[in-house]
Amino acid sequence: MSKMTNFGNTGLARRAALGLAAAGLMALALPHGAEAAKLKLEKDELKLGFIKLTDMAPLAIAKEKGFFEDEGLFVTLEPQANWKVLLDRVISGELDGAHMLAGQPIGATIGYGTQAHVVTAFSMDLNGNGITVSNEVWEAMKPHLPKGPDGKIAHPIKADALKKVVDAMKAQGKSFNMGMVFPVSTHNYELRYWLASGGINPGYYSPDNVSGQIAADALLSVTPPPQMPATLEAGTISGYSVGEPWNQAAVFKGIGVPVITDYEIWKNNPEKVFGVNNAWAEKYPNTHLAVVKALIRAGKWLDENNNANRDEAVKILAKSEYVGADAKVIANSMTGTFEYEKGDKRAVPDFNVFYRYFATYPFYSDAVWYLSQMRRWGQIAEAKPDAWYADMAKKVYKPDVYLKAAKLLLDEGKVAKEDFPWDSDGYRAPTAEFIDGISYDGKKPNDYLKKFTIGLKGAQKLESNKVVGN
């Protein structure tokens, strides 16, 4: 068996095995004629990157359940040290693609940080993040939090209570430090959104000062996800915004309390995407389609039958080659519950969504929201017209590729027609399902920005670390 395993690790052997398998299938009666019409792959051996978070699940499931192999793909999944390394390796071609922060392809394409044209044709999930504070901060917040009829803290918890803690620390000459995973991460924008909704200024970026801490009441800085709990325990930060399992890890360790999930900040928000270099997508269009097909099937498997497969998914993700965290920690959120203060476990069935609600479709309006937050906090230094936002979204998000992959799966009988927004113009309907109730219309980003008390809008910009203009 070991000889076969070693032999199977060579590209030649894998291709031979695939050829034998294909030959065997010829003798079978296939239920759908399109099943036999495989894509002609330009490249069949791929290395895909990820960060050790539960929302990398579609990649792990596509590999473990044979969905990549069904498409003729031999995929190696490789964990990366941090988001910057991951992005750089996709741009350089060392990785064929990767599990990415939704803001990464957008940020790279507009030239914030690393300049490169990165695209996505697949949204990996909705929700999945949380904000955790230290035990000390939590105890200071609690007297300011309302309770429900059951005597438990009422949720969602707003940042107003944290403002009192931040103000008290500021009066004592102390800074309030929080961690997030990357400057263009969903976590950064969600944390900023939540803080600002409670009157806490999370600070601005400018071309001359990329700290993101200009005029800040709370100082946000980058901490890699797996290091969040240890950094909190050391007292370097007083809280953080991160994906799972690192909020639940704080509960298990007894070092912090998750106060809110991103589902409560923005209901069914887009979280991660599968990103590739645009040059790669143009060079290997059929391979790209094949990857998207496999990932769509993985998302479906993760959500089907009312999350019936999540227990198996937890066991897979707990493996050292994937997330490598305790299965109990991963299960806390992946199976539809979330533990806030220790012992306060509540049902959050949509904490992780991988397929329902058109979760995998790359909506232009999702890209526009991230662009609006980049503008709000100064990462986009100058005012841009609404048409610019639309153009950038279309440059990065590729729903046409997604729907082509979905149509192939539909023809093969592997998905249902109603699972996809075939007639969408790429924009979700306007929504006010945010923690502050402010309505967002992806076609009117500048009108949206005008609604915020804290944040850049109109022609405002940063000069000498001050907001100027109207």
TrEMBL record:
What is the protein's major site of localization?
Answer: membrane
The signal sequence is 1-36
Residues folding into a coiled coil are none
Extract the SUPFAM superfamilies matched here.
Periplasmic binding protein-like II
Source organism's superkingdom? Bacteria
Q: Where in the cell is it found?
A: Endomembrane system
Keyword list, A-Z:
Cell inner membrane, Cell membrane, Membrane, Signal, Transport
The UniProt record lists the keyword Membrane: yes
Instruction: Give the similarity note.
Output: Belongs to the CmpA/NrtA family.
Any Gene Ontology CC annotation: endomembrane system
What PANTHER family does this protein's entry cite?
ALIPHATIC SULFONATES-BINDING PROTEIN-RELATED, BLL4572 PROTEIN
What organism does the UniProt record list as the source? Paramagnetospirillum magneticum (strain ATCC 700264 / AMB-1) (Magnetospirillum magneticum)
Under which name does UniProt file this protein? ABC-type nitrate/sulfonate/bicarbonate transport systems
Q: What single Pfam family name could you report for this chain, choosing any that match? A: NMT1_2
What InterPro entries does the entry give? NrtA/CpmA_ABC-bd_dom, TAT_signal
Per the UniProt record, the lineage of the source organism begins with:
Bacteria, Pseudomonadati, Pseudomonadota, Alphaproteobacteria, Rhodospirillales
